Fold this protein.
Amino acid sequence: MTTVPNGPLPARTPGTAGPPAPVGREELLARLESVLHARGRALLTGPAGVGKTEVALAAAARAEARGETVLWLAALPADRAIPGAAAAALVASVASTVAWPGPRAAETIPRAGERLAGEDGPAPTVAAPGGPVPTADALPAGVFASGVFDDLPGPQRTAVAMLCREAPIQQGGWDPIALRLGIARILRALTSRGPVLLVVDGAEFLDPDSTDLLRFALHLAPPSLRVIAVETPEPYGDTHRADAPEPGTGAAGHPGRPGAGHSAHLWVPSEADLLLVPPLQADEIAELLIHHRLPSRMAGRIHRASGGNPRLALAVGRSLADARTPVHHAEALTLSGRARDLARQLLGAAPPPVRATLLLAALALRPSATLVRRAGRPNAEADLAAAERAGLVSLAEDGSLVFTAGLLPSTLVHDACWAERSAGHAALAEVVDDPVEAVRHRALASDRPDEELAAEVAAAAETARRRGNNALAAELALLAAESTPGRDGARRIARLVDAAEEAARAARADLAMRATTDLLARDASPTDRVRARLAVLDTAGQGLTDLDDMYVHAMEDSEGETALRAAVQLRLAVKYVLADGDPERSRTAAMESAALAASVGDPRTAAQALTVQARMERALGSPDAEPVLARARELELAERPLGIRNAARILTIRHALFDDRLVDARDELNALLPLVQRRGSVEDAIELFRTLAEIESRIGACGAALAHAGQSLALTLEAGLSPGPAWYALALAETAGGSLGRAASYARRSVQASEEEGDRVFLSRSRYALGRVQLINGDVATALETLRRVQTDERAQSTVDPSMLRWHEELAEALLAHDAVEDALAVLAEVRPVAARLGRSTVLLGCDRAQALCLAAEGRTDEAAELLTGTASRFAEAGLPLEQGRALMALARVERKRRRRSAAQTALHAAATVFERAGAAPWLALATEAPAGELPGAAPGGDETATALASLTEAELRLARLVGQGASNQEAAAKLFLSVKTVEARLTRIYQKLDVRSRAQLATALRP
């Protein structure tokens, strides 16, 4: 028994804001506090490892921050067999938490027979067979030295002393009535000092005596005592516990007491105060991994393996981090060590019959209670219901089931011997109603290659492919190859090639790698080796950095094979830009691939290569980009591509996005949507939704942008692909219409994932998204650093076209906010001629906005206002409402500098109207904040003060207003999503500009 888990709660000053909620638990924590406020009791329940204790810790820390007394009891499994263990720990916790002045307890212990304080009639006495009641001189100080228990009547003090083993336990044990009243009086006395929060962690481990004592005490406790019980349900009942007492026996150490049914509940819970702690979503698992400094690029696969259980997810994440070599997307997850042990702990609590039933379910392709019962488990429904209560599976109304974490069936199958697995598959083969599944089970039940069986499996794979079940087709294709006898090497190799390519179509990187590894160990032809390697490369997503050997060997094996060399060159063209950040080398490889493909009459590969070439021509600012793309589109019309990803049609749409022909781009994508949903791959759908989100973020369809970005991320995580691009799209969508805090979070995640993958393209994009949010939030120093890195990245990649990533205008504005006007003008002077030459009119408009702010900084406010007025109008004509609103906000800032308050207010109202119509919530919040610079001339300091306020940047005005209203540095940092260090540095500049030396003087300067 411990009183505080993992050390004491963090010390906090009363009245300060509490700590942030655990990842993904903000809403649950708010509900918990609401339940505590309304009912005073809350039961947190859920499977082991789901994070119940973390939520309780956060609630306790917030209560402590409000000045409440927090008592924490953490019960351990061994405590269940020790009578009174939890109650004694509670007394010790009170004594260590609170010390009241008063005479020493040993000098004031009342004698037996004294009246209980506040009660009428004769006081009960403590029966002490075998000896007198212990006197004051006989009791050591112990917990009583605190003085907390000085007001307890004698019998109650004696009973509490026996409970805490500070007095010998007499033959009859302690007086149960006195002990009950004593515990209740202790809690009442404690609440007289102020509100108290009692957290009982591990309530299922409470011993029966303590449960009875605490239940009675809580029943009499005043409302100022609030209680959180944290409980992991025991799905299999007490009969399966090693420490469960024999039925009918008394509690240990109390031979005279009859046994009572033990319920761990300290009160009868209702729906109102029972809170289930759910598993985390995939995106929250990614945030959790980042929070613990673990790789996040595998977040989707880790979520599937863990089922959203934080403890399992962190164990899997640490297994990956500790791997000797980085685990690639095309490789199986490392599920050994701590991760596998945790899964065994969860499964180990299940009785053997339940485990046997779960093993059959793990072997089935579409498990259900009916199927498992027919396969030889007559009590399947009861076993699976117990497993569901344990949080191992989830049962639907029709009896179908899914395991809550992929690690659970994996561990069941991993730990079962071959005979158990074979018998299970054989039983399932007899009862499944789908011939494809029956063939699969028969193949898995056999450990001997069989050509007849292999041919059946290959036919089943073809059937699955026709049904559109690419994942099952890939699995069966590999199973057919592995079932082929070794003496028929040519047929086995052919099936391995087919399996690798089938896995590529299904985006099953793990199966592609398995098939390719098997093939490369055999005497395969160079052509077969190249085809298998290309399948692995096609499933690698953004993670191409660690596959250099694949490219080298593919180039060697394709020597003399023109068609294969064209295919390899095409993959190299993609690698050169994504992993190496070298668009010129990528363009060269793409041109070679297109020429080779055309020479052998391969229009599909030629179209793909020309598409890559067109993308590089655009990045390099070449006028050949559109003609090359047009050639690719012509070839696509003659030879329909297998998907839209990396196709000329999708690149045409992205060019329209870069050129701000957004309505055309959106219409084209919406026309593609039915086709992709009907027969497109997962990667096609991800690409489509991500591009839609980017278009809608810019066009001002903010709600749709958030929805489509969310769909892109969900599909990405489900497929186990790198989430960097999807997080980038979400960062843009959140910046447009969600939350700037979430936008910054997604952008940081995208940066980390792109760094882990070595993806140079999306690393630059995600840094741009992050720097933009930081600038909008007013974190100028950090934004400048981030955008400078974007500048370095883009120059290193020789990117010329400024429309593909519009960092120039953001960097110029960040430099200007940092009082580096000349540097800002230099950035604009560098990009303007290029944008003009390429005809990027909306890039020039963004430069005009930044240019106008530079003019205002130089004191040329009339010119700045005129330029911004025109810029806002031209943004509106271009169909870019968010950019129009930004220009109007900049105009309001300039008008304030011109002392034209009415014009400034008009511009702000116009911006707010634009943002409200677009659903741009964060921009609307910025536009509707009362501008601190608009102060009456009668303010202290008169015109001089108003002029000084006008010298503040927008970010400085926001911070000054917050601090002037009484916010601490920490509170201002939290509200503005800045670091405390940034707030301190900015406050220093504000003090200097306003010539104030304290917060009081700042508040006075801001007062109307």
The chain has 47 helices and seven strands. The longest helix spans residues 662-679.
